[in-house]
């Protein structure tokens, strides 16, 4: 078995309005960070996973992301794996 | 003494007392136990002597101070458990989690009495909102209370907020919880019966907040960074499960006693239970369910992980309790037993690793030297700011404009921004909720009677005159309950003060308590629970002496509740109490002169007692269409608040206009309305009750009219509603 | 008539809803533990408000996998009865895909508890049958994640089939698309609403509009 | 000026209890993802930023993360930059 650090990044679908992202962007600009745009706020889930291969790990994480971690009506996700 | 001991916050004298009591030197673990049990926060070593001044008995008192909460009898076998507690230091460091865990702690106190928590109230103090730090703290604290209280399913129905520079470095977060129980359900935090089992239930034990109690027993200074315990993170979801499971456990006759784990965790709670039962307790540290298996016994014992409780149950019944808590998905384990020897014994795999006499650990902390010394020598003086008297009148200021500006001050204005973030309706008992009246009213399903609750206090009054301020804090709570038509029954209080080793602070502490005690005696009201929070000061700032008073009252018939706002055009407006008084300590002086004034109008306790009786009679006879006490902001503010409810204005027939009369804040006054055809009945009752009164005018139109000036209620309401915009 | 109010870990309006059905309306009602799956004996199943599983991750995201929710599709398909999700219950139903769309954080990013005005958009359903079409009613809301959103096609379908039952009137408190406060599925067997009818079911708390919703659902016309 | 895609990942400090992470982990295990541990749930903020250099961009983002995006008492953050 190998061990992986898994990161699942979840963000609102690009076509959806993200009020939180907008509020954060406004605040950042007020605090002096000019030249920014398109701010989106999402979720970030991190865990350790044991699996026989990268491929198996990735499949499993994709399945749980699809089914549970992200809501496909409003969110999309990306998966990052790193072997320990 | 080594650095290690000093770091735990024990004094040399205390260390010697420990050695003398043990007849040996304590080991590291034992020293940790003492550090927590003897901390100011847990032992009340500097305040005990003064707290004894408070009256605590009465015919309805089922449980006075000394347990996790006080309990008062209502009607039909129902009782109410209540207590207020502070979470000031943790909230200053991390407002969201600090406030959230404060809510959790006080809820478990109520749970420990065998009650179901039915309401929360919160009293908050911040610096001025022109300071971004104060705003940030307020936003964090309010969202923390909202996060925890909403999720746990207990409505937050009242409280208050004041802004003052005195709280800029030390915000105050006091939370009160109210619970309902049948008399037969009453529980105590007690361990009894040799061989009976000790259970730990709720969340897993982790490395949270080790030394939180000692942290709360020191000033908040910059370099505490290093000593700062890990921030405790509350889990309201687990708390909700703990409530439901514990309510089930309380129905089992084999439950002997239960206690929440607050500051001090397992180092204090079992010892306190043993002290109450006159027994000893042995715990097996390896039985404690852990979040992190690498924790040392020291860390396990001193952990302040949230959402945990200790139960003492009859030997042989453990399985029943294990089942209940497992059903609710909570951690649960038998971690020890009651023993005959009156010691707190900690075992690790069969070996005793700490053992100290209960009597030494609980209540054995010597009174610090400074208490005796300060008590003899301290006088007021530095507590009183030099301020000018403003007996002179305003010149050409418009009353309407002054009123509008006052209504827009964050201390006076609407707190809607806050309480709309609180679920104040869950459990469907909230008949009068936040922002609607002086006190909240909760029905009891299936009963005719209802409960009224209030929480608050004004630190500025106490800074000016701690005795009068303490007295007023109790009077104001009484007024709030009387306004809704309820009879006050009992008091809980949280005393927030600066560093008690400063003589003036301790002097003010005593004065406040004497004031509260005298007022309580006048009304024959008992203090049944409370909390002390010292060390609310930084290098540069002390908070005002701030007693926060919580009170519970009984409305015998919910149909007799009195609304706050004007109800009908043509109703007659009456002021009960005197019209004239000083303007000292008022929000008006603060807003317009940036001053406090030189003195508070002294409260007339004789008149207070008369008003008490009269207001109760008026409510019972359903004579009033509305009632509201005069407090922050004074007379005109109270009238404006009455007009907002239905947008009804008033013609006021006031001629003796002075700052004191219109904006002074001395209590002992109510503004009531009555139908014109019942005016005579009202005045007759007032006369026979010995209450001075005068007619102020008539409810009419959509504007307030005063001495030829006129302002639309809607315009005032706008100012009022936009005062808090964070 | 027999009703069930589901108790999830973290439900907190379960008892309130039970009280209205059982004590105020006299309907035979059970509190149903979330592990139960034998649902056929009930004519009405209510998923109550609260914070099931702490609303961690997303409101309703964990509860949708609870055994009782997993048993709902069959209950619905066989036409055993009606399902109503209130607040957190509505969130669970959308997460489970039993109602279309999603409930996201309020535009203000804050929890909000207040009484709001609602307009009845369709009164030909069990839930709304005791109101007039376009009647304005008052009910409390209490949520942090009540902003209803759905893809345009879904919204089209909701409108075409008259599945939108209540909309916010005057002020939209959470930013819901089309002011949507309550919807149903196509067949009219699954209902979801953000407002809390159980909180306005007695004169003590307002107009009693909430009681009409429950009366309609249990056919106490 | 160069343009960057910035991602700031924010997570609860390792020594702090993360009840959300715990609840999500339990749910994932029940849904069949065995062999996982140490689940933490954090935030993920993404935006576009114009700056003269990677270094300047990184400095600015670090500053705003420290000051605003993350709460240093309870959270830690990491920054990822990618030039467009
Ligand atoms: N200001 C006070 N007035 C009355 N009783 C008080 C006061 N402060 C503390 N008490 C009582 O002293 C006991 C110990 O309080 P505390 O240590 O806050 O309890 P807990 O163990 O719940 O933290 C409680 O019974 C409390 O009600
Ligand atoms: Mg306690």
Description of the structure:
- In chain A, 33% of the residues lie in helices and 43% in strands.
- Chain A has 2 helices and 3 strands.
- In chain A, strands 2-1-3 form a 3-stranded antiparallel beta sheet.
- Chain B is of the alpha+beta class and 726 residues long.
- Among the domains of chain B are: 1-37 and 187-365, PurM-like C-terminal domain (Phosphoribosyl-aminoimidazole Synthetase, Chain A, domain 2), CATH 3.90.650.10; 562-726, PurM-like C-terminal domain (Phosphoribosyl-aminoimidazole Synthetase, Chain A, domain 2), CATH 3.90.650.
- Helix content of chain B is 35%, strand content 23%.
- In chain B, the strands form 4 sheets. Chain B has a 7-stranded mixed beta sheet. Chain B has a 7-stranded mixed beta sheet with strand order 21-23-20-24-22-25-26, with helices on both faces. In chain B, strands 1-2-3-6-4-5 form a 6-stranded mixed beta sheet.
- In chain B, helix 7 runs parallel beside helix 8 (132-152) and helix 7 (95-112) packs parallel to helix 10.
- Chain B is globular and about 85 Å long.
- By secondary structure, chain C is an alpha/beta fold.
- Chain C has one domain: Rossmann fold.
- Chain C is built from 6 helices and 11 strands.
- Chain C is globular, with a radius of gyration of 16 Å.
- Chains in contact: A-C, A-D, B-C, B-D, C-D.
- Strand 2 of chain A pairs antiparallel with strand 2 of chain D.
- Magnesium ion (MG) is lined by residues 68, 109, 260, 262 of chain B.
